[in-house]
Amino acid sequence: MANIDEKSQGHGGNDHGGGNDEPVKVTVEINGYPVVLDEKVMTGLEIKQAAIAQGVQIQPDFVLQLQRPNGEYDVIGDRDEVRVHKGMDFTCIAPDDNS
Predict the structure, then answer these.
(1) Distance in angstroms (rounded) separating the CA atoms of residues 29 and 13
(2) What confidence tens digit (pLDDT) does each residue in 11-70 have?
(3) Which of the residues 27, 41, 66, 98 has the least number of beta carbons within 10 Å of its own beta carbon?
């Protein structure tokens, strides 16, 4: 697992006035629901916790998956790190769901 230093993230977009350490908010989709996250590196568990806090009907033990542009899914473990960006599409299913 890669350890990414937050200081190397390179926030400094041209659309914000500099000197502001506030993270950029982005909207992703989890099980078809919009979830607002900070544009940063987050663990799978942090993504699920944010979705739960915003009313998505999932549980912390559910399996988080990221849908790739080619339609395939990558399972994101609770400790796996993901750089969150606008437009990401996740599904989150019960661990015993065989569908």
Answers:
(1) 23
(2) 444 444 555 678 899 999 999 999 999 999 999 999 999 999 999 999 999 999 999 989
(3) 98
Structural domain contains residue 10:
no
pLDDT digit string (tens) for 10-21?
A: 444 444 455 567
Q: How far is CA 81 from the centre of its chain?
A: 9
> Is 55 part of a structural domain of the chain?
yes
Model pTM score = 0.76
C-alpha 74/C-alpha 79 separation (Å) is: 14
Q: What's the CATH number where 36 sits? A: 3.10.20.90
For residue 7, tell me if it sits in a domain. Answer: no
Question: Which domain, by its residues, includes 63?
Answer: 24-93
Residue 93 gets which letter from DSSP? E
Cα 37 from Cα 39, distance rounded (Å): 6
